[in-house]
Amino acid sequence: MKKIEFENIKIYIRTKNKIYIFIKDEILLYEGEELLEVLENLKIDYQLEEKMVEWSVILNFSYFYINIDNENDKNRFFDTLKKYFYYKKEKFYFDFIENKYINIFLERKKILEIKNIFRAHKWKVKKIKIDFDCIYNYFKNENIEILQIGDEESLRFIIEDRKIIEMEKLELKIDDLGNISEFDFGNMNVVELKENDINTVFQGENLYDNPDFMRKKEINFNLKSIKVKDIFFMVLLILLYFIINSFIPLEKGKIRNDEIRKEIKLKENEYLKRKNEKLRDYSKELEIIEDINESMNRKEYYSLIKFLIDNSIYGIDYTKIEYENKEWIIQGEISDFNLFEKFENNIEKKYKKTELGYIKDEDEFSVFEYKILEK
C-alpha cells in the first residue's frame, strides 16, 4: 500500500461517471463511479491522510455556461442579473492588452456540492478550473488550431501569438465520430480521450491560475464611503428585478406555450400526412379474405392470420394471402434469408401439410410462395 501525505492530487471530472485522477505522475480512470465513491476508493487504495489539503479540481467545459458572444448580454439584462445570483462568474481573457474576454459561469450550488463531497473526508478544495483553459495554457506558446471534442458538444479555438483569436462551439460529440483515427481534421490538433490528451489537461492546469472558481475576489472599499442613497438604490434594484421577474416570465411563458402548441400541431399533421403516404393499401387483400369459403373453420382461419402477423417480425412483407380449393396460398417478400429460415421452421412446425411453391432472388429482396393445405 502507498501512503501519501500533503500531495497535490488533481481530479478531472469529464462527466458525472467518468473521472480521471492524476496522482504520483500516474493517471487513473474511474468509470461508472461518482465523485464520492471515487474518493472513498482512492482513500483506501492509497491510504490518504485526512489532513491532506491540496486538491485541484478540473471540470469539463460542459459544466459551465460559456458566453462566447458577450454582446448578447447587453440585450438580456434580467437574464444576466439572474446569473449573478445563482452562478459564479469568471473572466477568461483572449487578449489582456486589448481587454478581450468572455464570461464563464458555474452554478454556485455545483461549487458547494463539490466542496461538501471533499469536506466529508475532511479535505479542502484548493482550485476549481475549466478544462479548455488548461488546454490553452499547454499550447499557448504555439500558433495552433485546437478541436476539443466533448461528450455532449465540442469547442474549436485558434491561438496566435499567445492570444485566442477565434472560438466557437460545435454540435459534435465523441460518440458521433466512432473511430476518430479514421477522420481527417486537417491541421487541427484534436484533443479527446487518449492518455496524452488527458495528460495535456493535467499539465496545463499548473501553468496559470485564472479563471479559478475557488478564488476569492478581493473587495476593497471603505464602509464609511457608503451612503444611505447607495443602499437604497441597491435595494430598489433588487426589488425591481424580482417584481419584473415575477410578471414577465408569465407572459413570455404563455406566448411560448402557444408557440409550442402550434408547433406540436404542425408536426402532428406533417407526421400523419407522411404516415398516410407510406401506408400500404390492403383493401384488395381484405376483399379476398372476406370472400374466403364460409365452410372454412373460423377458429383455424383466425389462427392462421394470427400466425402470419406474429411471424412478420422476420422481415416478411406479405403480398398475397388467398384461400381456394381447400388450400392457403401465401406470397411475400423477404429482405434477410437467415430470418426467412426461422419463418420456414415455424410454418412447418405448426402446419404439417405445407409446400414451398418457389423462392426467387430479385434485385433488392427475395420473393416466395408457400401453400398450406386445409387440415
How would you describe this protein?
The chain has helices spanning 35-46, 77-86, 108-119, 131-139, 174-177, 195-205, 228-278, 283-290, 298-310, 337-350; strands spanning 9-15, 18-23, 26-31, 55-59, 65-67, 87-95, 100-107, 125-130, 144-149, 154-160, 163-170, 189-191, 316-324, 327-334, 354-361, 366-373. The chain is an alpha+beta fold and 375 residues long. The longest helix is centred in the C-terminal third of the chain and has 51 residues, at 228-278. Helix 4 (131-139) crosses helix 6 (195-205). The protein has three domains: 9-139 and 196-205, Nucleotidyltransferase, domain 5, CATH 3.30.420; 232-276; 283-373, Gyrase A, domain 2 (2-Layer Sandwich). It has ten helices and 16 strands. Residues 71-75 and 219-225 have low confidence and may be disordered. A five-stranded mixed sheet has the order 3-2-1-4-8, sandwiched between helices.
Q: Quick recap of the structure?
A:
By secondary structure, the chain is an alpha+beta fold. It has helices spanning 35-46, 77-86, 108-119, 131-139, 174-177, 195-205, 228-278, 283-290, 298-310, 337-350; strands at 9-15, 18-23, 26-31, 55-59, 65-67, 87-95, 100-107, 125-130, 144-149, 154-160, 163-170, 189-191, 316-324, 327-334, 354-361, 366-373.
